[in-house]
Write a structure and sequence with these properties.
- This protein is mostly helical and 75 residues long.
- It has one domain.
- It has four helices and no strands.
- Helix 2 crosses helix 3.
């Protein structure tokens, strides 16, 4: 049986479609007996759906470097 910490990690990997079938099975079995992890998994799924719906975008690496440079210049 996996720990709650491992379950949380697998849940996050599953969110990004990075979890193997074995990890997904381990998570499913853990969630059957652990209500806290089941709740975490549901909330994580809801968060993913909300982020997808909001069509959130992140800054590119180039944009981040530009902002970092500007901040350093002001310091």
């Amino acid at each position: 049986m996996i720990t709650c910490e491992e379950a949380a990690h697998i849940c996050t990997r599953k969110q990004y479609s990075e979890a193997s079938w074995k990890e997904r099975l381990q998570l499913y079995l853990h969630i059957l007996i652990c209500k806290a992890c089941a709740s975490f998994s549901r909330k994580n799924t809801q968060l993913t759906k909300l982020c997808d719906k909001a069509q959130l975008q992140t800054l590119s690496k180039k944009e981040k470097e530009h902002i970092k440079k500007k901040i350093q210049e002001q310091s």
